[in-house]
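I am writing to request your help with a piece of structural work I have in hand. Thank you for your consideration; the sequence and its tokens are set out here:
=====
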Amino acid sequence: MINTPFLTGGFRPFFLLATMWAGIAMPLSLISMLGSGSVLPAGGVFWHAHELLLGYAAAVIAGFLFTAIPNWTGRLPVRGGPLLALVLIWLAGRVAMLLAAAALIPAWLGAAVDLLFVPVIMAVAAREIIAGKNWRNLRVLGLVALLLLGNIAFHTMDDTWMALRLCVAGIIALIILIGGRVTPSFTTNWLARQQSKVKPASFSRFDAVAIAVNVAALLVFAFLPLDSRLQTYLLAPLSLLAAVLLTIRAARWYGWHTWSEKLLVILHIGYAFIPLGFVLLAGSILLPGVVPYAAALHAWTVGAIGTVTLGVMTRATLGHSGRPLTADRITVGIYICVILAALLRIVATFIPGAYVPLLHSAGTLWTLAMLGFVIGYGPGMFRRRAR
């Protein structure tokens, strides 16, 4: 089994298992939160949030890191037995959290098992980056550390929402940093092949300032109590500034010129959910009776995280398995489902009377997107790279 193609690259097991889990966790949590009986008596909404952030998103991050690091360092990828060990640690965490949420094992035991995964992937990734002397990419692990801190806080602190905000902040910051590298790079290459006269702007001091302001806004969002007066005087204006800077930055990549290339335009659409989230966050602070706080949260989680991760997973899987970089019908269907899921989830927060049906619709579309990846890309994970 260790020599199987399934364990030749981090994207294979982690992308597949992440989408399988996201497709299972969503309906399970919806049944628990909205059904007549509680499937997860000790979990509910917190289990739902944790498993989509520390289960799904963390697995995608691991798959991305162990696929990208060999390109960054020139070293051989983590594969075989070591990769299998990482996968088993992740699986153990999912089982432990499910059993703890169902009150079948003590909460401390579920926490102990769940807390293993992120520090282990950080340690392995750091070893590879340092061995390859690729020092600049250590900053990526600094943002992954926010996930670790958020997970520790989730299991040890009373303020569970702050812990989850910290996880969201870490993942969005990673998308801003990594997505801000690959999206304009892919766009530049594609536009050049189309012989377009348009060329995305190169990384400049403006981009550095935009990233710094956005990360600062995310950290304030994570750590500032929801009832603090500084929400109005600090977080709201900082969020609006972050949204403006990030919108200008993304506009300089000319994403609308990539509409015909679905593998590329999905990254631009996903990135656009980040400034939208900042605008909705500022609105929820300045106009609390008009703009729901949950709208901002789900613009980032379902919108940015869901859309960008699926965009990255589909493109990376095609490229690293030797398949043509072309979005087939299943891939386009995946993209449509996740975008609609994000939009419906945001709209649901504004219409209390239609909240439950809209929530179920968004959850169904999310599940279809994730299981669509499993169906369309899963079989290829077990095949050798095409020549």
Notes: Residues 341 and 361 are 7 Å apart (CA to CA). The chain has 13 helices and no strands.
